[in-house]
Amino acid sequence: MTAPYSTSQPVISLDSVSKRYGSETVVSAVDFKIQSGECVVLVGHNGAGKTTLMKLILGLTRPTSGNVNVFGSNPAFTNAVAQHKILGYLPESVAFYDAMTGREVLAFYARLKGVSHRGCERLLESVGLADAARRRVGTYSKGMRQRLGLAQAMLGNPQLLLLDEPTTGLDPGLRHQFYELIDALHKQGVTSLISSHALSEVEARANRFIIMKAGVMIASGTLDELYLQAALPVRLEVSVTAGQASSVINRLGTGLTIDAIGNEKLHLSCFNGDKMPLIRRISDLGDVVSDLQILPPRLDEVYSHFMNGERS
Amino acid sequence: MKMLWILAMKELRDGFRNRWIAAAIIVLGILALTLSVLGSAPTGSVRVSELDISVVSLASLSVYLIPLIALMLSFDAMVGEFERGTMMLLLTYPVTRWQIIMGKFLGHVLILSIAIVVGYGGAVVILTLVTGSSTEGWPAYVMMMVSSLVLGAVFIALGYLVSVLVRERATAIGAAIGLWLVFVVLYDLLLFGALTMDTDQLIGQQLFSMLMLVSPTDTYRVLNLSSFEGVSEAAGIAGVASEAGLSGALLVSVMLLWVIAPLMATLLVFQRREL
Predict the structure, then answer these.
(1) Which member of A96, A99, A111 has the closest CB to residue B14?
(2) Of A72, A154, A218, A267, which alpha carbon lies 20 to 30 A from B80's?
(3) What is the greatest pairwise CA distance in chain B?
(4) Is residue A134 in a domain?
(5) What is the DSSP code (8-state) at residue A100?
(6) A22 shares its domain with A82
(7) Which residue of A has its CA nearest to B15?
(8) Residue A273 has what DSSP assignment?
(9) Mean pLDDT value across residues A138-161
């Protein structure tokens, strides 16, 4: 690539980027940076501006105000060729030339990227399309198109992957395979920005999350950071001697909420600031308590908090 | 240049795959053969050669057919890719918008040249072999083929402009038909009507020449019917163009301008287009 770009710079940086179509504001003053090697997930409802953000990063559309920077230069329009050589993109609902076969489609895109044909066969195999490679793309199912879309995004070992809803239409086995592939690429230092609805799938994979709502970036950070920002209660699962649950609760006192009481299990939650005192009190209870687990924060909780609540 | 070639080859392959090229070859070939066979009948003992007659009749019919074929080839080129969503993915590859337009153009011109060379060329080769007629009229015939290709290129370029300006394929079809009607039928009709009503000869020689240059189809007609002596005699318009001050070079430049201008306009619109 030609642009002077070093890995210490962010791969993508958005500087108060807004995009309006007519009177409608689709993206409003979004700021974020994505460093080299990061795997960032964009979450948000349909119409939250995720796809528009991708298009801005790809230079398919220009911001109404603010600056977009990708690999150290402005992706807008004509000068994006160098960036596009090292970038892979999977659009939300990917469309191909239906009259061509899967192999022809991939070979066409490989030629445009200046990649040798040999890699194509391997890619088709890795997405499970080797048998369908000679069939016209028009006959492909939604899932097969999606897989072909993934294959073209992987062409030429991209350094940056932009994947818009990559797992829609994939069956569970392929989803798993897909995330393994992303993990492997991640280990090689590939930067990726993935937009997704499948919160439970992505929460373990991403370094960082960006939550979008109606064009506004309402939160961003690691899952732990978001959990703190959201001030969501910490959840604890306490295992006690059978029949002792209610007496344990009496002895713990205040500063906690009881979510559920079983015979041997107690589900408690408390504010983050009360967490350590509570844990100390639990451990002071002695042999009555046989186990204590702090349940990890879940992305969907954080997400629904930010979606429903006020901006915190 | 390599990018242009990759994009052009894709269009060419599409042309072969959807039998487009085959259909165009058959139409043009049958047309050329029929007209040549029919056209050779009335020559009698006139000094003009059979091929010259063919050029006159083929040029007259190409004016209708070539723009139609070219527009059918090109109206979908941009709007089809926008509508299906393939353009978005294509633009995330290391190609410029200029390369996409020129690559498509190169591919479509190649498709049309194959159709013209095989269709028109094949017909005349068959005719020469069967009837053993002289090769005297070949330069005019070749010139007719080349100028037909340029005429086709004009309408491919105009088709792209339509294709990049509209939002839906259906609109593009309508606009392409409109374009064809205006340049192939209506303009000539209006011009003819104006000349008929112009009893005071307000439309002088110079204005008339200018008016012929405004429409690419008329430019094509004048170019073919006047450039070779034999042909203009067969067409019965000997010396008309030279009197009108329309040199071959001027006519050719005007046609090329008709190729370049719509292509540039298409590029300008495409550059501004956001997806």
Answers:
(1) A99
(2) A154
(3) 65
(4) no
(5) S
(6) yes
(7) A99
(8) G
(9) 92
The CATH number linked to A274 is 3.30.70.920
Q: What is the CATH number of the domain that holds A213?
A: 3.40.50.300
Same domain, A218 and A256: no
- Are B94 and A114 inside 8 Å of each other by CB? yes
- Model-wide pTM > 0.90: no
- By the CB < 8 Å criterion, does A91 face chain B? yes
A170 and A64 share one domain: yes
Residue B174 belongs to domain spanning: 2-272
Instruction: Give me the amino acid identity at B269.
Output: V
- Considering only CB atoms, B91 lies closest to which of A60, A93, A114, namely A60
Of A194, A212, A272, A269, nearest in space to A238 by CA = A269
What is the extent of the structural domain holding A188? 12-86+158-227
Instruction: Tell me if A153 is assigned to some domain.
Output: no
- For residue A100, which residues of chain B lie inside 8 Å, CB to CB? 17
Number of domains chain B contains:
1
**Cross-chain residue pair A60–B97, CB shorter than 8 Å:** no
- Residues A66, A164, single domain; the answer is yes
Cα angle vertex A255, ends A253, A261, to 5°?
65
CB A44 within 8 A of CB B237: no
Domain count along chain A:
2
Q: Which of A19, A85, A112 to mutate to test the interface with B (most CBs of B within 10 A)?
A: A112
Which of A20, A21, A97, A134 is the best residue to mutate to test the B interface, defined by the most B CB atoms within 10 Å of its own CB?
Answer: A97
Domain match, A219 and A239 both? no
Residue A202 confidence class, pLDDT cut points 50, 70, 90: confident
Chain A environment of B15 (Cβ under 8 Å):
none
Mean pLDDT of B91-99: 93
Q: Round to whole Å and give the CA distance between A7 and A265.
A: 49
The complex's ipTM works out to: 0.87
Q: Which of B20, B76, B79, B92 to mutate to test the interface with A (most CBs of A within 10 A)?
A: B92
Min Cα–Cα distance to chain B from A252, Å: 59
- B3 touching chain A per CB within 8 A: yes
* CA distance to A116, A132, A147, A173, A269, per residue, from A128 (Å): 20, 8, 8, 11, 45
User: Contact A96/B97, CB-based, under 8 Å?
Assistant: no
Q: Is residue A140 part of a domain?
A: no
Q: Is A271 among the domain residues?
A: yes
Residues in chain B, total: 275
Look at B275 and A55 and tell me if their CB atoms are within 8 Å. Answer: yes
Q: Angle, nearest 10°, between helix axes A223-230 and A299-308?
A: 40
Same domain, A60 and A163: yes
Residue finishing a domain among A200, A227, A254 = A227
Q: Contact, B143 vs B105, CB < 8 A? A: no
Residue A19 and residue A59 in contact, taking contact as beta carbons nearer than 8 Å:
no
Note whether A91 contacts B93, CB cutoff 8 Å. Answer: no
pLDDT tens digits, A75-114: 875 566 888 889 999 998 899 999 999 999 999 999 999 9
